[in-house]
Design goal:
- The protein has 430 residues and is α/β, with parallel strands linked by helices.
- Helices cover 52% and strands 7% of the residues.
- The protein is built from 18 helices and five strands.
- Helix 2 runs parallel beside helix 16.
- The radius of gyration is 21 Å and the shape is globular.
Length: 430
Amino acid sequence: MTRAMCEDADEQLWRTVRDTAESADRVTLMRAAGCLAVALADMAGSARDPIHHGTARVLAAAPGGCTVTGADGGAHLTGAAAANAYLMHARLTDDSFMVAAHPGLTVIPVALAAAEHALLTGSGKVDGEHLLRAVVGGYECACLLAELLLPEVSRRGWRVTAVIAPLAAAATAALVLRLSEEVACSALGLASAATGGPLGVVSTEGDGWRLQPALAVQAGVTAALASAAGLRAAADALSAEHGFYALFGGLLGAGERHRVQPPAVHRVTFKRYPVAMFGQSIFDAIRRLPPISGIADRIDVEVAPFAAQYGNQQSGSTTSIASVEGITLAAVQRFLPDLDVGSGTRRVPIRIIGNPVLPDLTARIQLTMADGQQYSGAGDGDTSGWRIGDFTDHCRAVLGAEGTLLCDAAAALLEPTGIDRLFELWRATR
């Protein structure tokens, strides 16, 4: 991008986000409610794990009036947003966009915390519709940035979620708190100073991938509050020579193509299994195979080129969250327990093939047995078409009856008492 062609990039981004939020129709608002319900279920599911619960409390830090999922005590706005963002992502069950980005964690924890903050401090009127519009706008910011940057940002070694999270979080907070255009634009510029995060966390062992996005979300909320307190960003923070777009690979013209499409929240995808988004189709393909017993000789996995290359597949750890090989073995263990794939140096070879013909969320599996018999299958991980029934099923699967209640409350946010009922149920969920 040239500086002349990106003049006032922060204003352009903010106005797109704000206008999308303000013009959202009922169908789009209900889609946002579904995203919200899934997010709450995923947060609560993670909070039931003692390790994730304890980590969330550490991130919550200073006490305050904003809810930390599954905890008895609340936290300040920034801590609550970070803690809930962590919980949403901790089990790798959260939503996705363009395969690699996780927009929900950058938006929903911030929207909830900012809404509670506004209600508790009396700094602004927040009802269910206002909350949902902020969610729509937050997703628009996160997804527009992901669309601008992918796949170049990944090729440069950055994790896209950590890159977009500060700006999306700042935009979401600005929408909920009704910050002026000047303050909101400065919030985006200030947030851009805290962007980044190495992609290496997804190709190695350890828990860095769980924590990284939450820290980025916290930075974005802090930037919004700092802007509200009077700090101002440079006018060209996003489009300067060494600014956000130049560093992470923003593509000229992508924003114009995006704006003719429906709100991005309609293109978000959701997970059936706790693996990377591109792994959903691998799980689906192996699930569709008939029961198989015996000794495997080879497994060929065809995925889109992005998945075949993401996270340094050649030298990354097979136990990392990005490993196609590791995802394949996990699916075999779950759905084909009688299939012998060996172990250690004797483990069956898995060949990963990047097929440019395949859509991003499709996979093909060919299993060759030691006796020469072959089994083939295809899987589809595209869940962008989920409707309210799918959201309810997901929430029920994660939390049981509590999940159904949360989903019903999210769907009722446009009713007069909607936000009160949702917060009441969320605070009580354990």
